[in-house]
């Protein structure tokens, strides 16, 4: 019998399945497990947004929507970006996508050729690596663990010097998953200067833009509009992960090319879900602020508790993740640590090494879960650390 898997696309056979999703599945064997794993808000979608989706169904929005998105959604998204961040895009420069996930794949497919380079500061969510690898691109991971988990102009310049015009895509995600780090506008301006007027696209993934706690949201789009492809969406800020609506914005000539790939990947997004996203962008500013206040309370509690237990914690400036280093006196193998924590304490946490270079001995805690659950999880973690530290000694 012929093993047909040996004749599949080399990019597919070379990509590993998601360690995060595999571990989440593993944790499912423990019914009482406290999950700090998946970045999914525990809130319900606000009622006025649900009503908009229901109205879309009642109004028979059951046919194909325009491939790039309904006019109402694209207009609402453009107004949202302008109102909230001073980012100016015409509605025609915006594409509605199947979440930010599809947008990332569309960008990589539309831009990268085999041998091109995609660079990204790490630790970072690993999806970008898989998508670039599928296109036969070379992935350059820029370890930021020695620079407070921020990309510096010097580190970026080193990549430019080494790879030159092969550097086709630079990924910037902020607030950053998994560290919660945010950049100032001055920092982003300095990074933009390194790649300005080069044949390099900058993919700015700003899906957590509404969840900045300690400063106004800054964006590389303001520094380098003509080279930026901007991603945003409704999943994180309005608890709409299941609605699967993201937005992708770029100068018109770039959007026109991205639209070719987008239409073949997904054709269009469900019309009632676009109606809901339109309502979120038009009338949901207060919803996002309320959720952010709750996330900030959880952040402060978890940061304090993990610090007391002995973790070295990077206090997040945005998103809903805490990045913490395994306490001294314990096995620093983060993958072994999270499986032991799941088995012994029934607590699910992501291993830092799953987020590429710079993540070894670190852990990612998602606090997109109820405060009572967080408190129970902390109690179990404290007990686990105390018992295993004593065993190690």
From TrEMBL:
<dbReference type="InterPro" id="IPR015422">
    <property type="entry name" value="PyrdxlP-dep_Trfase_small"/>
</dbReference>
<feature type="domain" description="Aminotransferase class I/classII large">
    <location>
        <begin position="32"/>
        <end position="381"/>
    </location>
</feature>
<comment type="similarity">
    <text>Belongs to the class-I pyridoxal-phosphate-dependent aminotransferase family.</text>
</comment>
<keyword id="KW-0032">Aminotransferase</keyword>
<dbReference type="Pfam" id="PF00155">
    <property type="entry name" value="Aminotran_1_2"/>
</dbReference>
<keyword id="KW-0808">Transferase</keyword>
<dbReference type="GO" id="GO:0030170">
    <property type="term" value="F:pyridoxal phosphate binding"/>
</dbReference>
<protein>
    <recommendedName>
        <fullName>Aminotransferase</fullName>
        <ecNumber>2.6.1.-</ecNumber>
    </recommendedName>
</protein>
<dbReference type="InterPro" id="IPR015424">
    <property type="entry name" value="PyrdxlP-dep_Trfase"/>
</dbReference>
<dbReference type="InterPro" id="IPR004838">
    <property type="entry name" value="NHTrfase_class1_PyrdxlP-BS"/>
</dbReference>
<dbReference type="GO" id="GO:0006520">
    <property type="term" value="P:amino acid metabolic process"/>
</dbReference>
<dbReference type="InterPro" id="IPR015421">
    <property type="entry name" value="PyrdxlP-dep_Trfase_major"/>
</dbReference>
<dbReference type="InterPro" id="IPR050596">
    <property type="entry name" value="AspAT/PAT-like"/>
</dbReference>
<dbReference type="GO" id="GO:0008483">
    <property type="term" value="F:transaminase activity"/>
</dbReference>
<dbReference type="InterPro" id="IPR004839">
    <property type="entry name" value="Aminotransferase_I/II_large"/>
</dbReference>
<keyword id="KW-0663">Pyridoxal phosphate</keyword>
């Amino acid at each position: 019998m012929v093993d047909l898997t040996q004749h599949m696309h080399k990019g597919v056979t070379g990509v590993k399945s998601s360690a995060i999703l595999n571990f989440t599945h593993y944790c499912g064997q423990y019914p009482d497990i406290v999950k700090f794993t998946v970045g999914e808000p525990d809130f319900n979608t606000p009622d006025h947004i649900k009503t908009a989706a229901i109205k879309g169904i009642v109004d028979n929005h059951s046919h194909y929507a325009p491939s790039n998105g309904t006019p109402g959604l694209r207009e609402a998204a453009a107004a949202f970006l302008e109102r909230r961040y001073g980012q100016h895009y015409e509605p025609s420069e915006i594409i509605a996508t199947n979440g930010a996930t599809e947008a990332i794949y569309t960008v990589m497919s539309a831009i990268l050729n085999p041998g091109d380079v995609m660079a990204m500061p790490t630790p970072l969510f690993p999806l970008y690596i898989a998508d670039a690898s599928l296109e036969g691109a070379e992935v350059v991971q820029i370890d930021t663990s020695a620079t407070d988990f921020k990309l510096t102009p010097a580190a970026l310049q080193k990549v430019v010097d080494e790879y030159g015009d092969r550097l086709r895509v630079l990924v910037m995600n902020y607030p950053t998953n998994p560290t919660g780090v945010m950049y100032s506008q001055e920092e982003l301006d300095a990074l933009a200067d390194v790649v300005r007027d080069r044949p390099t696209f900058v993919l700015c993934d700003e899906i957590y833009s509404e969840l900045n706690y300690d400063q106004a949201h800054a964006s590389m789009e303001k520094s380098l509009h003509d080279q930026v492809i901007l991603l945003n969406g409704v999943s994180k800020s309005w608890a709409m992960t299941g609605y699967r609506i993201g937005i992708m914005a770029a100068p018109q000539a770039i959007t026109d090319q991205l639209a070719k790939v987008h239409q073949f990947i997904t054709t269009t997004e469900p019309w009632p879900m676009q109606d809901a996203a339109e309502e979120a962008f038009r009338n949901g500013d207060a919803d996002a602020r309320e959720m952010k206040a709750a996330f900030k309370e959880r952040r402060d509690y978890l940061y304090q508790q993990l610090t007391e237990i002995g973790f070295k914690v990077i206090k997040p400036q945005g998103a809903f993740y805490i990045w913490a280093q395994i306490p001294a006196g314990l096995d620093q193998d983060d993958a072994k640590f999270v499986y032991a924590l799941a088995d012994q304490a029934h607590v699910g946490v992501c291993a830092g090494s799953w987020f590429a270079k710079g993540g070894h001995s670190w852990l990612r805690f998602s606090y997109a879960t109820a405060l009572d659950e967080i408190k129970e999880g902390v109690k179990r973690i404290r007990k686990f650390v105390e018992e295993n530290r004593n065993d190690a000694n």
